[in-house]
Amino acid sequence: KRAKTFSSSFTGATPTFRLPPPTPTITSFDSYEEETEQLKNAFMFYLNNSLSDATSLCANVFPSSSFSLGIDTPGDVATMKLSEMILNDLPSSDPRWSDGTLSDATRTGSTSLIIIYQLQDKLEAHTRFVQFLTDVELLDKLTCVTVRGRPMNTRYLLCEHAEKISASMILKRMHNRIIEDAVKTLLQLRPPLPHLRPGLTAQDIFYSQVDSIEDVFEHVLICQNNIAGSQDTPIERLEVVVGVASIIE
Q1: Mean pLDDT value across the chain
Q2: What is the pTM of this model?
Q3: Cα 8 from Cα 138, distance rounded (Å)
Q4: How far is residue 227 from each of residues 22, 124, 231, 238, measured CA to CA in Å?
Q5: Are 185 and 223 in contact, with CB atoms under 8 Å apart?
Q6: Containing H/E element for 144?
Q7: How many angstroms separate the CA atoms of 195 and 88, rounded?
Q8: 150: three-class secondary structure by DSSP
Q9: What DSSP letter does each residue of 114-165 carry, written as one string?
């Protein structure tokens, strides 16, 4: 039986939305903050089984004519931002993110399961978000957004985000000494999150920021090279190389 899940703030019947810090890898669209807030409100209506209210709000804020620009429209940018927020949403019911209290699950060594369940919650929330876009008739209107300096089909970006959550779950299940070292190195290079508490581990922090999950792979390779030049036995070094190859695949 599945242990208690510290679910995403998007998956409850009456969700409470917590904004994560912005992601620097995607162009900032400060002028669309209001549209993003309205799309968030519509999604909240949808999660509370008010499809008519959600549809009406989206129709008012994102009329078909607003997509005529073909790239970086208010609807596309708001969709991109809200999808990012789901990926980086902090576990709203995990007490370690609020007061630093170590839960019973943490004390009994089941933190790994907690993280997997939190990632599953994000995948569920993102799936519901895409279904929401479909049901309020926004998905087919989406055009393109600027990502990593280039136009990208917004629907493709939604697929990429879902793939990142799935990749995070696979990486968590493969988590080993090399990944742990790479994660700790990466976190030292990032600015600290504003919600950190003493009871959180490096894995908690890393896997909460799914949108930038790919950043770890460079450090995985660096850690592999460091181990390959270490005093470990040839068999141990070979095992490391094989393990890293499996991770990159």
Answers
A1: 80
A2: 0.79
A3: 23
A4: 34, 37, 8, 10
A5: yes
A6: strand 144-147
A7: 12
A8: strand
A9: HHHHHHHHHHHHHHHHHHHHHHTT-GGG--EEEETTEEEEHHHHHHHHHHHH
Tokens 């917590």 correspond to: 18
Integer-rounded Cα Rg, in Å, for the chain is 20
pLDDT at 155 (0 to 100):
96
Which pLDDT score is estimated for 191?
A: 86
Please state the rounded mean pLDDT for residues 214-219. Answer: 87
Handedness of CA 189, 190, 195, 201 (dihedral sign): negative
Judged by DSSP in three states, 85 sits in helix
Kindly state the tokens that stand for 177.
Answer: 């000494």
- pLDDT at residue 72 in the model: 92
- pLDDT score for 241: 47
- In this predicted structure, the answer to whether residue 193 has a pLDDT above a threshold of 70 is yes
